[in-house]
Design brief:
heterodimer; A: mainly alpha; globular; B: 2 domains; 0% strand
Chain lengths: 203, 160
């Protein structure tokens, strides 16, 4: 327990130091931060825009924006929230520009594509693997069909493991909004999974 | 014995509970209820299955090529910004130096051609002062334009 707290603390200090170095223009610090955050930022972007090609483009734009704006970052603030806010703004600008209706989906048709295969879980064990993969695929499929604001909040809470206060910072929304959005998104996700179950039983 | 409507109240809060959005009192109340109510406990388990599944979804990763491309673009941006900052820092002393040379050039020329007394001429001093102010404004405007242009260029590149 103490070891894990010490590890988290060390990691935090490492990030703070890298942010300070990056503010002085050090490209090595940029590489350090990118290596640390690449998977989280990419996953978040992919959850928002769903298309891997768009996520790739936004991933690159996010780090370019980090390089441009890092000197205006207030080091007393939370770097994670600042970084995710940058990525979020770019993703929502993209969604407004490319697919104006994306912000108030739900999408009816489930694309049988890349995302599900990318998101499917890989638990070990032969039979369990099959079941878990099947379950994870359905969950990933249902998640993908939620409106973007719901996908976003679920990703930040359960995949990024952010605190509600941090999510409120990223969304620039009150804590009460974050809580109610989380509840609604979970309820809608469950409804979709149950509808999926019912459809399977009928079939 | 639970009130019949208590089950509905508890179930309405379960999604909020698994999202971590309830306070300690509400959590404890739900804990006490589900300890004695199998149907609400099963309902809670359903929610936990969903959130557990969300936590275990595989993390998609950017390709190494994408990582490298993004790193190179961002590092190039850092270099450009460092150069721009350096240029701006150089610009200020250069402008001041140029202005001093321009303003000082005239009395030096006057001293060289007319001697020390020619510098004390009241008309010369008035005109020279006006010239100093005018040239200061000119250099200041030129310097500001250069800074503004250097700031505008990256903005235009981004729009493009």
């Amino acid at each position: 327990m103490t070891g894990s707290i010490a590890f988290v603390w060390e990691e935090r200090l490492g990030i703070d130091a890298a942010v300070q170095q990056l503010r002085r223009g050090d490209p090595d610090a940029l590489a350090t931060l990118m290596a640390r955050y690449q998977n989280r930022i990419y996953r978040y972007l992919l959850r928002l825009v769903r298309q891997p090609a768009d996520a790739d483009d936004l991933f690159q734009q996010t780090w370019l924006r980090v390089a441009e704006k890092i000197r205006s970052f207030d080091t007393s603030r939370n770097f994670d929230a600042w970084l995710f806010t940058l990525a979020r703004n770019l993703a929502f600008d993209h969604l407004r520009r490319v697919r104006p209706r994306s912000l108030d989906e739900p999408v009816g048709d489930s694309p049988e594509d890349t995302m599900v295969s990318r998101l499917a879980s890989g638990d070990p064990g032969p039979f369990e693997l099959l079941l878990a993969t099947e379950r994870a695929s359905r969950l990933a499929g249902a998640l993908e069909n939620l409106p973007v604001t719901y996908r976003e909040v679920l990703t930040l809470r359960f995949e990024e493991e952010m605190k509600l206060e941090e999510i409120a910072l990223v969304l620039a929304a009150p804590l009460s909004t974050v809580k109610s959005r989380l509840r609604r998104s979970l309820e809608q996700l469950r409804e979709m999974l149950e509808a999926d179950d019912a459809g399977e039983v009928r079939a | 014995m639970s009130r019949p409507d208590e089950h509905a109240e508890i179930r309405a809060q379960l999604a909020q509970l698994v999202a971590g959005g309830l306070d300690a009192d509400a959590e404890a109340r739900i804990g006490r209820h589900t300890a004695t109510c199998p149907s609400c406990a099963a309902e809670l388990e359903c929610w936990q299955l969903i959130t557990g599944g969300l936590r275990r979804l595989r993390t998609p990763q950017p390709s190494p090529a994408l990582f490298e491309r993004a790193r190179a673009v961002a590092a190039a941006q850092l270099t450009v910004q460092a150069e721009q900052r350096q240029n701006r820092m150089m610009l200020v002393p250069l402008i001041v130096f140029s202005w001093v040379v321009t303003v000082a050039g005239w009395p030096v020329f006057r001293f060289a051609t007319g001697g020390l007394l020619s510098l004390l001429d009241i008309h010369f001093r008035q005109i020279w002062l006006l010239f100093a102010v005018f040239s200061a404004l000119t250099w200041l405007a030129g310097g500001s334009a250069a800074v503004l242009l250097s700031l505008r260029r990256p903005h235009e590149r981004r729009l493009a």
